[in-house]
Amino acid sequence: MSGMGTSGTADTIDTIDTGATVDTAGDIGGAGAVVAMRIGLVGPLPPPAGGMANQTLQLAALLRAEGLDVETVAVNGPYRPRWAGRVRGVRAIARLLPYLAALWRTAGRVQLFHVMANSGWSWHLYAAPAIWIARLRGIAVVVNYRGGEADAFLQRSRAAVGVSLRRADAVIVPSGFLLAVFGKHGFAVQTVPNIIDLERFSAAAAGTPRDGGPHLLVARYLEAIYDNATALRAYAIVRARYPAATLTIAGSGQLRDELVALAAQLGVSDGVTFTGQVDNAGMAQLYRQADCMLNCSLVDNMPNSVLEALASGVAVVSTDVGGVPYLVEDGRTALLVPPQSPPQMAAAVLRLTEQPELKASLRAAGLKQMQQYTWAQVRPRLLRVYAAALAPAAAP
Question: What pTM value is reported for the model?
Fold first, then answer.
């Protein structure tokens, strides 16, 4: 991932008609500031808790703590009327119309939309309308694209996406992987990494290896692209050598019943715990209890679960798909294996179990790397993007 360090001398950039200043070393306000920037943060919000929803909620809190006035517009707000959420073909309209109304109202009160965007219908129904409403209302818009399926999506829909995307004042992505993908399709973007709360996701003291076998953790939605079935099959292989090994699968999703049935078929149900949806505080505790986190995804960008595990001092075994190799280095900060390969994933877990020096090395390197994802490091980069997006509006 590309890095943009802060300089020793801060540059100060004036924002539009507010009297506020944005200091690229991270300060907002400055002498004589009267009104902070007003940001409309558009994206999913918990519940359910998930990577993008958690990032939206966290970013809103961090920006408010800096003195910015932040309004959130949830793309996953309640269905209105509520019964419409149970009717196929009606659900999308029942959520979309209140969303569009909220966008329009919010755009009249803020200076900039920060839009958390994804691929597929999510782009067309939520991100693109936010861009156009921002343009109609005369405010700046920053698109924060996060979808791991970006390459396939842009191959299919580049022209349609480009019509809206080129009207954004800035496009930011969280990883070098997406930087390369967008560049390949002719779009100029900048990297602003995800943020990890190191107060919440912190490492417990390194303990001695468990006598009975490792405790494994999966922290992804129970959906096909995350291939949790591979985690179960890999666990069954590990358990054949370490009968007391356990697996916790934290998350909800439509494949839960199928995965429960697979655990029974593999004969490992008594060692597997399906927690359902877990909030941030609960996830932090689960990481601290784990020996190894498995990420079996078939498509990925910059998985928060990998960042959270590393910040918690937990060894990571992941598939080498999408943006994961941009995030971790095989053999230095994690162990990477091909997708849909339970034997290789199990072999990596066994290496970590039986080579404590390797596990300790990965832990130390991962903890060090996570320092670049703190708010102190990400803040100046994001504020520079905001200031540049707002600057054209300040021109006479």
Answer: 0.83
Condensed to tens digits (0 to 9), the pLDDT of residues 270-295 reads 999 999 999 888 999 999 999 999 99
Asked if CATH classification 3.40.50.300 holds for the domain at 215-372, the reply, yes or no, is no
CATH superfamily of 12-195+374-394: Glycogen Phosphorylase B; (3.40.50.2000)
Considering the chain, what percentage of its residues have pLDDT values greater than 70? Answer: 88
Candidates 219, 189, 229; CA nearest to 341 is 229
Q: Give tens-digit pLDDT for 354-388.
A: 999 999 999 999 999 999 999 999 999 999 999 99
Sheet with 38-43, edge to edge strand ranges: 69-74, 38-43, 112-117, 140-145, 170-173, 190-191
Alpha-carbon distance 202 to 312, whole Å?
A: 4
Same fold, 12-195+374-394 and 215-372: yes
Lowest-confidence pick of 27-31, 195-199, 218-222, 368-372? 27-31
Residue with tokens 């070393």: 25
Report domain extents, the chain. Answer: 12-195+374-394, 215-372
- Cα–Cα distance for residue pair 160/218, rounded to 1 Å: 36
Gap between the Cα atoms of 143 and 163, Å rounded? 13
